Structure formats: structure tokens, C-alpha cells
Amino acid sequence: ETGVTQSPTHLIKTRGQQVTLRCSSQSGHNTVSWYQQALGQGPQFIFQYYREEENGRGNFPPRFSGLQFPNYSSELNVNALELDDSALYLCASSPDMAGGEAFFGQGTRLTVV
Amino acid sequence: AQRVTQPEKLLSVFKGAPVELKCNYSYSGSPELFWYVQYSRQRLQLLLRHISRESIKGFTADLNKGETSFHLKKPFAQEEDSAMYYCASNMEYGNKLVFGAGTILRVKS
């Protein structure tokens, strides 16, 4: 069984640029959630995808967008990057929208300069 | 808005001492509460959830709706328990988690 994998591991971008982060969900999982973790804080929910549809969104602006593909892998896109977007971005997959344990990836560290 | 509060950033105890990591939540409905743990250089992983009422690695947590708390306890701390611990609550149906800021547990020998 393959765990949740995220790419890239680290990324440096310039303010105003766009970035795409990728997540492969655990085998058999159809639900993917994305979280932003700023330094010294707990993860904050961005949005969730279930069977290729957005299924809930946290308090993030529209420049944060996502996709889920038929194989249930997912992308997080952030446009017009701001310095405050610098954070660890975590992806979590779970077996179903109804719940079940959420399995986290190792995260992507984004630095905006 | 739903909120999870962990009042301690750092808890330092000696090996063999009891541990209590505090967690309070604010939610008007019936929340589902979790404890997640992150060991050094490892990913975030589920430690326990209140609906399962299990003891994992000697840790237990009881949901107290009157006090809106879900404190994590262990009677005798071990050095391998040193980690970052996050309390989390489900915002709504389906694993949309609200996390606290986390507590670092350091177990000294």
C-alpha cells in the first residue's frame, strides 16, 4: 500500500508568481484535503475534494484553487503569490468523504520571496 | 467559527511522570475530536479519536462536553513520547479538520 506523497518537497517562488503543488492520495482513497501550516501554527483547512468535486472550503481567497483527477490525485494552485503564503502545505487523503482516518503527506515547503 | 485551543506551547516532564496535554474546543454541535502526533522528521499521524475510545501507546483522551475539553493523558511518560501533539476537531461531516496550535511534549530522562 502506497502512502500519501507530495511534490515538490521544497519550492521558492517570487511574489506575484503562480505555483502548483501536487499530491498522490493513498491507494483506495477518494477524498483529498489540503491544509496550510504557517510557522508555529497548526494546519489550517484550505479545501477538500471528493470524487473530483470540491467538497468544502476554508477561509482562503479564490486565488487558492484545486483539482482532483480521476485517479484521485490532486493539485493545489495558488495565483498571485504573497509573502504570507510562505508555509508548509499538507495534503491528506481519507478513504471516503464520510470520514475514516486522514493520512497526511510529508508536505511541501513553499517560500515566497 | 469552530476553534480548538491548546494553551501550552511546550510541556516538559520527566520520564515516568504523568502527562496531560490540554485541549478545549468551541463548537455548537456534536464534534468529532482527534489527537494527531508528529514525531521528529515524520509526517503527521493520527494518535486517537474520541469515538473509538481506545488507548494508543498508553495515551487516552476523554471527551468532556460540559467543559468542552478533550485532554490527552498518559500515566507514565516515556522518552519516545517526545513529539508535537495537535488536537483537532471535525468542522463538519467528513474530515475537514480544525487544528489547535500544537503542544511540544519533551520527556526528559
What's the structural blueprint in terms of helices and strands?
The complex is a heterodimer of chains A (113) and B (109).
Chain A: E1 5-7, E2 10-13, E3 19-24, E4 31-37, E5 44-50, E6 53-57, E7 64-68, E8 74-78, E9 87-94, E10 103-104, E11 108-112
Parallel strand pairs in A: 2-11
Antiparallel strand pairs in A: 1-3, 3-8, 4-5, 4-9, 5-6, 7-8, 9-10, 9-11
Chain B: E1 3-5, E2 10-14, E3 19-21, E4 24-26, E5 33-38, E6 45-49, E7 60-61, E8 72-74, E9 83-90, E10 97-99, E11 103-108
Parallel strand pairs in B: 2-11
Antiparallel strand pairs in B: 1-4, 3-8, 5-6, 5-9, 7-8, 9-10, 9-11
Task: List descriptors.
A: 113 residues, mainly beta, 50% strand, B: 109 residues, 3-stranded antiparallel β-sheet, 11 strands, 43% strand
Order of helices and strands of chain A: EEEEEEEEEEE
Number of strands of chain A: 11
Stretches of chain B where pLDDT is under 50 for at least 5 consecutive residues are none
Number of DSSP helical runs of chain B: 0
Explain this structure.
The complex is a heterodimer of chains A (113) and B (109). With 113 residues, chain A is mainly β. Chain A contains no helices and eleven strands. Chain A has strands at 5-7, 10-13, 19-24, 31-37, 44-50, 53-57, 64-68, 74-78, 87-94, 103-104, 108-112. In chain A, the strands form two sheets. In chain A, strands 2, 4, 5, 6, 9, 10 and 11 form a seven-stranded mixed beta sheet that branches. In chain A, a hairpin with a 5-residue loop joins strand 7 and strand 8 (74-78). Chain A is globular and about 35 Å long. Chain B has 109 residues and is mostly beta strands. Helix content of chain B is 0%, strand content 43%. Chain B has strands at residues 3-5, 10-14, 19-21, 24-26, 33-38, 45-49, 60-61, 72-74, 83-90, 97-99, 103-108. In chain B, strands 2, 5, 6, 9, 10 and 11 form a six-stranded mixed beta sheet that branches. In chain B, strands 3-8-7 form a three-stranded antiparallel beta sheet, with no helix packed on it. In chain B, a hairpin with a 6-residue loop joins strand 5 and strand 6 (45-49). Chain B is globular and about 40 Å long. Chain B starts with a strand and ends with a strand. The chains are: A mainly beta (113), B mainly beta (109). Chain A binds chain B through residues 4, 31, 33, 35, 40-45, 48, 50, 55-56, 58, 90, 92, 94, 97-107, and chain B through 4, 6, 32, 43-46, 49, 86, 88, 90-102.
